[in-house]
Amino acid sequence: MADNLSVIRIAQAVGITSNAFLAGNLMTMSFYAVPTLLLAPTPLLLRQWRKMWNLGKRSNPPIAALGLLSNAYLAYKQYNAPLSTNHPRGEMFAIAAFLSAWIVLYTPAFMLSTNGKLLEAAEDMEGFAVGEEVEAKEKKESTRQLVDKWGMLNLGRGAGPLVGALVGLWASLA
Asked: How many percent of the chain have pLDDT more than 90?
């Protein structure tokens, strides 16, 4: 029994920590990185944004998966049967698990278009020198507006894991 309790405590710590870390990572991009990127000339801004995006694309899904698996395990252990609805703590861990995977649902639903426009603009800037200013093409949204919009949308993406960490903490302490 003590071994089982240790595994549950470890899963609780991993679920809460991975969600909190993911939320912090995503929100740091919006609160600190995006305003700093907006100070750079357009070619540099796009290179830096693309680098940040690629790093996040590689590192954030495994962190989300860790939170998802930990919280799903805890939900299963609370239910003792996957589809039981008689255990509020199990339901809370199931909600935390869903919110761990929030980025997988949110990104295509709300950010795909903006990501695509920014990636296309980054490709267009490939031949320009880092500090070179360029004349903006006639577009509905400028590159700076797109990066700013991306930062705001990214806050919504970070909200899911943040709420997931809080729900997981609440379920762990209940």
From this structure: 76
